[in-house]
Amino acid sequence: MKVIKAMLESGGRHSSIKALDACGGSGNAALKVLELGMEAWLCDQSQNLINIFEKKCSKKGYECHFILSEIGQYLATTNDSYDLIVFSSALHHLEDYESVLRLALKRLNNNGMIFSSFDPIKWRFPAKQIVKIEYIVFKLLNDFGDFFPAAYRRIRKVFSSRQEKENRAVKEDNLGELAEFHVDQGIDDDRLVVQLKLHGAEIIWHKKLCKSRYRFFEILLSVLGCKTNFKLLLKRI
Asked: Which H or E run contains 67?
């Protein structure tokens, strides 16, 4: 985030930098933005998560700005503009993430940027199998009480139609979980980059990463040459 702020300032943004934490949840990215002295707005469709964000801001003495809305709907209807739009572990929750990113490009100020991180890449053997095993180990060791409920939710999601996922995802106690449209197959980040270039984006960073909750699995994935997620930094030109 510090590097991105410096890049924005070097491009002539010496006044307050206005950032949007898109699909921000409880505001992890927004708080990092606020810590750097930038102005942060959070957009999410869960009032419960926004309430948590408000409490975090109050505790740290930050001014809280938020939009209660689905991100695609907000970007398609607002006249607001931003210097920075952040998608942190968010794209795989969106059915049509390409369209949302194109809308986000239109909401950027001149030389504004979009930063996306912590989304799964399109899975290839054996990365998908290793990540599934790692998730099972994580639930057994750290959240055993939710192990069987999580298994039930996963099976339910696999056998749900798209409409059923959308209908259930709008419920507060289910928000985001069943709406992870691309978590199983991952995102084709190479195709995404090509499409964004066609719509006027300059790609500053496109990095594929090997990440895991546990060092053992991270080493295993690295030895096998498996990448698990990616991050992008785009500039409006």
From this structure: strand 66-68
Measure the CA–CA gap between 168 and 97, rounded to whole angstroms: 19
Q: Which pLDDT score, from 0 to 100, does residue 180 have? A: 62
Residues 6+ apart with CB under 8 A from 35: none
What structural domains and CATH numbers belong to the chain?
2-123+183-214+227-236 (3.40.50.150)
Q: Structure pTM?
A: 0.83
Average pLDDT over the chain, rounded to whole? 88
Beta-bridge partner residues of 34: none
> What is the Cα–Cα distance from 77 to 166, expressed in whole angstroms?
21
pLDDT confidence of residue 177: 44
- One-character DSSP codes across 139-187: HHHH-GGGHHHHHHHHHHHHT--HHHHHHHHTSGGGTTTTT-TTTTT-B
Under a CB-based contact definition with an 8 Å cutoff, are residues 90 and 82 in contact? no
User: In the chain, which residues have pLDDT < 50?
Assistant: 169-178
d(CA 174, CA 169): 6
